[in-house]
Amino acid sequence: MAIGVLAPVDQVHEASQPSEHHELKRTLSWKDAFWVTSGVPAGVLFTIGGVSSTIGTPAWIIWIAAILIGFAQSFVYAEISTLYPHKSGGASIYGALGWVRYSKMVAPVSVWCNWLAWSPMLAMGTSLAAGYMLSSLFPPDSVINTWKLTLLDLNFVTKGLTLRVNSTFILATLFLLVTFKLQHAGASAAATTQRILGIASLTPLVVIALVPLITGDMPSTNFLPLLPLTHDASGAAVMGGWNAAGISTAMGAMFLACWSTFGFETAVCYTREFKDPQKDVFKAIFWSGVLCLFMFIAVPIAFQGELGLAGMLKPEIIDGSGVGAAMAKFVGGGRVMFNVVVVMLVLAILLIVMTSMMGSSRTLYQASVDGWLPRYLSHVNEHGAPTRAMWTDLGFNLILLLMSDYMAILSVSNVCYMIFVFLNLQSGWIHRLDRADWPRAYRCKNWLLALGALCGYIDLVFVGAGANFQGEHTLRNGLLTALLIVPVFIYRHYVQDKGRFPASMKRDMELPCAKAGVLPYIALAAAVLVVWVAFRLTVIT
C-alpha cells in the first residue's frame, strides 16, 4: 500500500516542529533512563494476587516465564531504537515506521496501543497509592473509606462498572497533580527525582525478596504441586489438571503477568533525549531488563513462599489493598513498621506513575510530530517537557480514576499492549529487510530476531486464550478500543495534513523498494488466525 505524498516543508512546518521552537533536550544518560524505568518492578504489586488467583500454585513459574519472554523481546526493541536516534516516544514509534510502508492504518494502531497500555498506569497507580494511605490512616469501616457518589452506570461495558467519586479519587488526583508538577521541569530534573524515589522505593521490594531466601522460611508445599486452579459447579476454586481447562488457565495468568513484566521497554522512550543515543539505548534497556529479571522472579517467589496459596488467594492480596500489611509481616514489627512499609510502597507506586507519565507523554508527542495524532500534542515547553501531551494524559486519567473497576481497565489496556508488542516484534525483521544498510549501534543476533518474532505470536495466544479470564468481553472491548485511533488518524492525516506526511518524515519513510514484499500482510493474517484459534480453544470454568 502506498505511503502517501510528503508535504513541502512550509505546508507541514507546524505539524512537524514543536511549537515555539522548543525541542526535547539531550540531557539524559543511560543511567538516568535506568532510574526512570526502575519504577517498572512496582507493577508486580498490581497483579501478584491476580496471577495467583488465576493459576494457583504454579504462579511462580508463570512469573519466571513472563519475564524471560519480556527479556528476550527487548533485544529487538534495542535494535529498532538505534535506527532512529533523532526520535522520542519509544518502541511503538520506531516499529510504526517499519509498518507504514505497508499500511497507513497499522502504524498508528501500534502507537495508539502502546499509549493505551501505559497511560492508564497513572490512574491505577495513584488509586492504589491512595488506597494504601487511606487504609493506614483510617479504619476500613470509617466514613472516609466508605462514602461514594455514583455518577454513571457503565454496566453495559463491564458488569458492575460505574463512574463514581470517593476519597480514593480525591487523594489520587492530588498524587497525579504532584507527579505532573515534578515533570514540568523536563526529563533531566524528573530523572533526578526518579533516582531518589527509586532507591527509596525499591528497598522494600529488595528486602522482601531477600529475607525469605536468607531465612529459608519457604516451605516447598507453598510451591507444589504444580497443578492449576479450576472451578467446580458451585464456582469454588479447586485443584485441577493440565487438561484444556488447566492450559487455558495458564494462558489467563500469562496474559496478566506479561502486563507487568514487559514494561521495561519504556527505557527506549528517551532516545531523542540521550546524550549519546548510539551507546545509551542498549545499555538502558539491557540493565533495566536485568533489574526486572531479578525483581519479577524474586518478589513473587518470596510472596508465595511466605503466604502460601491460601494467603495469596485472600481478597486483600488479590485486589492489592493488603499487600502493604503482608510485606510488613515479612520483616516483622508492629504499627510503626507497617506505616514505614506503606510510605515506601506509596513511593514505589508513585515511581511507576512517573515512569508512565514520562513514557506515555513522549509517545503522544512524537506521534503528533510524525503525523499520527493531532498537531496540538507536538508542543514542548522551555524545559523540553511535552506539556500538552502531559495534560492530555492527566485529563484522560482523571476520567479513568472515576471508574470503579481498575482491573477492567488493566485488562482492556493489556489487550492493546499485546497488539503493540506483536506489531513491534514483527517490525524488527521488516526493518532488517527494508533497511538492511542503515547504520545500527546495536544489531541483535538473527536467532534473537527470529525468537522475538515468535514471541509476538506466543503473546497473541495469551490474548486470545487468556483475556476473558479477567472478565467477560475483555477481548472484544480491547480490540474495539485498539480501533479508536482510526478516526483520529483519519482526521489528522486526511483533514489536517491533506493526505501528506510531515516533511520531517521523509528520511524515515523513503525507501528504494519494499523488500519485505507480502510478508507483513501474511504476518497480519497469521496473527488474526492465532487469536481466533486460541479464543475458540479456550475453556473457562
Biggest sheet overview: 2 strands, parallel
Strand content: under 5%
Overall shape: it is: globular
CATH architectural grouping: Up-down Bundle
Work out the helicity level.
55-70%
Supply the number of helical segments.
22
- CATH homology-level superfamily: Amino acid/polyamine transporter I
Task: Provide mean pLDDT, rounded.
Answer: 82
Low-confidence stretches: 1-21
Number of strands: 6
List keywords for this structure.
541 residues; mainly alpha; Amino acid/polyamine transporter I; two-stranded parallel sheet; two-stranded antiparallel sheet; 22 helices; 6 strands; 65% helix; disordered N terminus
What order do the helices and strands come in, and which of them pair?
Elements: E1 5-6, H1 9-16, H2 30-37, H3 44-55, H4 59-82, H5 91-99, H6 106-118, H7 120-137, H8 143-146, E2 148-153, E3 162-166, H9 167-183, H10 187-215, E4 229-231, E5 237-239, H11 244-261, H12 277-312, H13 315-318, H14 323-331, H15 335-369, H16 387-401, H17 406-434, H18 446-466, H19 474-482, H20 485-496, E6 500-501, H21 506-509, H22 519-537
Parallel strand pairs: 1-6
Antiparallel strand pairs: 2-3, 4-5
Helix pairs in contact: 2-10, 2-12, 3-11, 3-12, 4-11, 4-12, 4-17, 4-18, 5-6, 5-17, 6-15, 6-17, 7-9, 7-15, 7-16, 7-17, 9-15, 9-16, 10-12, 10-15, 11-18, 14-15, 15-16, 17-18, 17-19, 18-22
